Amino acid sequence: MQAKQLVITFLLLVVTFGCNQPFDPKGPIDQQMIVYSVLSTDRDVQYVSVDLSYMPSGSNPLTYSSDKALKDVFVTLRESRNMYQMRDTTLARPDTNWYKFPLHLYALYPFAVCQGQTYEIVVQSLSMGVVSATVVIPGKPLLDIPGTTTFILIEPFSHLPEEKIRFPATLSTEAKAYLVRLTITYDVLKGTDWVEETVELPIATADTNAYSLEHPIYPQVAPSPASGQLDVTYSNGYLQNIIKDVTTVKYKSNRLVYKWIVFSLVQFEQNLFNYYKMVREYRDPRSVRLDRPLYSEINGGIGFVGAYSADSLVYLLPTNFGGNR
Prior knowledge:
Number of helices: 4
Oligomer: single chain
Strand content: 35-45%
Structural class: alpha+beta
Number of domains: 2
């Protein structure tokens, strides 16, 4: 009986004093370099950001608004036997609701990455050491416009709405995912100024039988097929209804000149596609998560370095295109 009382007393003491012990679920921070960059072929400037990891005082990371850019660094971009030093620069931040200071970046300008080429980003810091990352730009794809497609593009209203606008393509072997777009560009006279505008064609809508433009569905990023072969198709009915909407509803009394139709293809390499999948899978509206996954392709640090290549086919529309006035 006495033994039982001693055990109960001991447990009560443990519980009583244990509840008063402070507990910090965050723990100490292991400070590291954070490197972020996306190289691309559709611009003549490349950027790299270098920051330090941080721990907010509370549980909400949005309360931390200090500048954590690491500035004692030397950033280089290497390709084959060439090495380029990236310059320290600042850019205006598009959104200053959280951070009030400008973006601190390292830029290389003018510089356009080449398709099929391998690039290495090396970041050397006096205080944090050296980190690096390597990425391969997807190579040149093969794009084509079949004769049946050109006939529809020239005179869409001379063809049935259900006829298909086809764009066959062969992806690069380095492309692990892709995104396509089909757009029509026109000039509209507003007052005394000609203004260029572009509209994207959907692949489906809420009413596919009537090719309605309400609730449009556009192509999304998709994994590359094993064969590397694509046959992207759009319905002519959507092209017809877009022209009708622009010509008879949106600008029924303005001067209009339809200029060209562009089929665009963006190829994602492995790093960028992995990052895209990670963000999409963990931010779905039906899941509640207590953690956030950490994605890193950086040797010696954390962060992300990826790349994409952009290509397009431009079809110039004739001067007598239906809708011009």
